[in-house]
Structure formats: structure tokens, C-alpha cells
Write a structure and sequence with these properties.
By secondary structure, the chain is mostly helical. 79% of the residues lie in helices and 0% in strands. It contains 2 helices and no strands.
């Protein structure tokens, strides 16, 4: 099960990557590449946020 901050980072990263590739007029492989790389970066940042921000009690 993926924690919520990591999931939000993953989805936000994918959306940002697709937007960047679409704006640069990339083809389908560019969209896939940008989306996957930015998604992994967002996923990693989401996990770091989960470590730094304390859970609500």
C-alpha cells in the first residue's frame, strides 16, 4: 500500500512530466519518458515529505 504523500507526489509528477513534454511538442515516447521520470522524482519527494512531516495524532 502506497502512503498518501507518496501517491500524491507520483500523480503530481506524472502530470507535470506530461505537461512539460506536451509543451515541448514531444512525441509519445517523450511523453512516456518525461511522465515516468518526473513521477519517480515526485514519488521520492513524497516519501521524504512523509519522513519530515509528522503524522497527525
Amino acid at each position: 500500500m502506497i502512503p498518501l504523500p507518496a501517491l500524491l507526489g507520483l500523480l503530481g509528477g506524472i502530470a507535470l512530466g506530461l505537461f512539460m513534454a506536451f509543451r515541448k511538442k514531444g512525441n509519445k515516447l517523450d511523453l512516456l519518458h518525461y511522465g515516468s521520470v518526473c513521477g519517480l522524482i515526485g514519488f521520492t519527494l513524497g516519501y521524504f515529505v512523509m519522513l519530515v512531516v509528522p503524522a497527525p495524532v
